[in-house]
Amino acid sequence: MSKPLIPAQRRERIQEYLAIHQIARSVDLCEVLETSEATVRRDLEWLEKRGILERTHGGAILSQRMAFEQEYQQRVQHHPEEKKSIGELAASFIEAGDIVFVNSGTTATQVLQHIRSDSRITVYTNNVNAALELGDPGFCYYLIGGEFQSRSNSLAGRFAMENLNQVYANKAFLGVDGISAKHGCTVPTDPEAEIVRRMIERTKGQVIIVADHSKWGVVSNFQVASIDEIDKFISDDGLASSAIEMLEAHGISCLISSTMSDPT
Q: Under a CB-based contact definition with an 8 Å cutoff, are residues 177 and 220 in contact?
């Protein structure tokens, strides 16, 4: 049997494991470190206090911090196929007669682009980029107005908030920059956070989060919803099974889109 590791060595190994896998089960860490579950639990508690990871039921995920908002055109280049497949799956849950909120962001844009042109629905959005790309989509949609946010190609501010106060939706499809068990759904800017929170408040139905797998475990600057405020989470097949298990344990329906090509 190898010589037991000292605490500093164990914690370094845990960080190395998470850097590779993003997610770790306690049982796997026990094998890697050749130590007890109680020892692993203490190490995870120590690392969580220092913001290195976030403990989950039966393990931990790497805590990834997103401190600033990227330009819209930069975000478009990240996981485009995954976002497209998420948008297509999400749009399939929109039904005739729905009144829908959709916020800004590249994945939310894909939801709008995949709504059927003959859909008898109404969409309210602050997503300027989507509106420019949609042209005449065949369904009714409103830009909520407000102050233009150049980095995100979106609308926000007092005027936008007042307009949202005039509407109730029965579904909200919301893109976020981070989602984690402890910190919930987060976005990088306060103006967008205000819009998303208000959309959730004015939704008398399902709140549906759309985000690719890279957003899991990421924490941005402003919380817009706790995990328990979500009804559905739509992501791609890169999302770890342990993340799905954790979300479903909170009563959230997880829907996974496929980015694999059909066999020829």
A: yes
